[in-house]
Amino acid sequence: MDFRPFVRDIVDFPENGVVFKDITPLLKSPEALKAACDTLHGLIGELKIDKVVGVDSRGFIFAPMLASKLGAGFVPIRKAGKLPYKTNSESYDLEYGSGTLEIHTDAILKGEKVLVHDDVLATGGTAKAVCKLVESLGGEVVQCNFLIELTFLNGSDQLKGYQTEALLKY
């Protein structure tokens, strides 16, 4: 399926100079949603996955679906202050700001194979922070999986040493 018609550009969002890739048209189409999930699953191949990490907030859309298909657990990575239990945290820079992400300290066990999923790979700061969080708990990141990669921002440079896959590349 050609997914490009289901992604629209929103100019100057969330601030001037940014062209936001809006995936809500894809999400509202049952056929495109299912096909995107199936295709993302196909990008994983034969990798053994124990946990799928989804990044706040749009990573929460496909990550649980992928976890279900893989027979794996789902782990939410949230913005600082949103998780109720003990956490590890990691700060990061992104295309138009910075932030801090957190993971529960008991979310991943030492040696577990982890798939990191987010909607967009832009500058790579968020994904790199997530990988550090997974590794801080002893998990092994086996793939970073994205709906969209903005190749012109060179985010994959931040993820050298990790296998990365994306459904769409711009």
From TrEMBL:
Protein's gene: apt
Gene3D superfamilies in alphabetical order: 3.40.50.2020
Species lineage: Bacteria, Pseudomonadati, Bacteroidota, Flavobacteriia, Flavobacteriales
Pathway this chain belongs to: Purine metabolism; AMP biosynthesis via salvage pathway; AMP from adenine: step 1/1
Protein name: Adenine phosphoribosyltransferase
Keyword Acetylation among record annotations: no
EC class name: transferase
Keyword terms of this UniProt record: Cytoplasm, Glycosyltransferase, Purine salvage, Transferase
The family this protein is said to belong to: Belongs to the purine/pyrimidine phosphoribosyltransferase family.
Catalytic reaction list: AMP + diphosphate = 5-phospho-alpha-D-ribose 1-diphosphate + adenine
Native organism: Croceitalea vernalis
Main location group: cytoplasm
Keyword Plastid attributed: no
Domain called Phosphoribosyltransferase: residue spans: 27-148
E.C. code: 2.4.2.7
Cited function: Catalyzes a salvage reaction resulting in the formation of AMP, that is energically less costly than de novo synthesis.
Molecular function, one GO term: adenine phosphoribosyltransferase activity
